[in-house]
Amino acid sequence: MVNQFFEALWQQYMAITPQAAAIHQLLAERGEQPVNDHVALRTFGTDKLGLKALIPLIETLGYRVKGDYEFTAKKLTAVHFEHQDDPNHPKIFLSQLIIESLPDDLQAIVAGLDAQVAPEKTGKLDFLFSGRPWDLSFADYIQLLQVSEYAAWTAAFGYRANHFTVSINHLLTFFEIEMLNTFLLDQGFQLNESGGQVKGTPEQLLEQSSTLADMVHVEFSDTDHTIPGCFYEFAKRYPQSNGRLYQGFIAASADKIFESTDNKKPV
Ligand code: OOG
Ligand code: NI
Q1: For residues 214 and 260, what is the distance between their CA atoms, to the nearest angstrom?
Q2: Which residues contact 219 (CB under 8 A, 6 or more apart)?
Q3: What is the E.C. number (predicted)?
Q4: CATH node for 2-261
């Protein structure tokens, strides 16, 4: 069931993220078999769609919440999950936008999206890879974008992984994150430079980098546009004093990873 869940998310992600297949291919040519460290999903913090509503879905897979995070400037909160029986299953990072912190006009847009979701839909696991469950106009997308890039992305793409993450610990031919970054840049991929190419330090037990999101053609209810979609992340974890690799996330780094979808202007 867990594997099927990640396979569904992966197929959905690959369909709009050509760089993911390209990076996989390049790694495979070096004899690598990438292992996924985690995926991240986004949502609106309403009663129907917020963390409280979605956490139980992920728990049905045997996952448990292991950490919570707050991003004050971006008006987000988040949790991360680890699998209770099998630590080799990828972790899941789930964040939500605090709706009450938005200006009234944007709260009204989000309420309009939320109202389009039948309550019974959010009770099933496949909701998490169902894509966008509402109609959205480009005008509303732009209005959200002016205040919260996260709100605009979530409105446009809905329920899907916004990134998968290559575990550098499992790579055979890359040891340092800088080495992988150089390889990706040489191959023509663009990296998220917010907070520097490498986010986090060995002392924090987690180093991360990410590409900039691929641009995706999206059908809005009024006109079609091409906007930033999903990206790829790379993570290297370090052992804790008990010898086990650190499994959490670093809020200051995550804050910058969010900006991997804030790269290019819609066209
Ligand atoms: C999640 C950003 C945080 C990480 O690895 O720190 C994250 C997002 O962009 O939705 O994935
Ligand atoms: Ni991530």
Answers
A1: 10
A2: none
A3: 1.13.11.93
A4: 3.10.180.50
pLDDT at 171: 98
3-state SS class at 50: coil
Whether ligand 1 lies within 6 angstroms of the CB of 164 is answered as: no
Segment-wise mean pLDDT, segments of 10 residues, the chain, 267 residues: 97 98 96 98 98 98 98 97 97 98 97 97 97 98 97 98 98 97 98 96 98 97 96 98 97 96 84
User: Ligand 1 atom closest to Cα of 42?
Assistant: 10
Domain ranges of the chain: 2-261
208 lines ligand 1 (CB under 6 A): yes
CB 232 less than 6 A from any atom of ligand 1: no
* Cα 43 to middle of ligand 2, angstroms: 15
Amino acid symbol at 152: A
The predicted pLDDT at position 216 comes to: 97
The pTM score is 0.97
pLDDT value of residue 267: 86
Let me know: does 95 contact 40? Beta carbons within 8 Å: yes
Any ligand 1 atom below 6 A from CB of 166 = no
The phi, psi pair for 25, rounded to 5°, reads -60, -45
Q: Is 177 in the pocket of ligand 1 (CB under 6 A)?
A: no
Is the CB of 154 within 6 Å of ligand 1? no
- Check residue 79 and give its pLDDT: 98
What is the reported pLDDT for 164?
98
Q: Which of 38, 34, 42, 37 is nearest to 184 (CA)?
A: 34
In this predicted structure, what is the pLDDT of residue 265? Answer: 80
Q: What amino acid is encoded at 7 in this protein?
A: E
Mutation probe of ligand 1 site: the residue of 249, 259, 263 with most atoms within 8 A of C-beta: 249
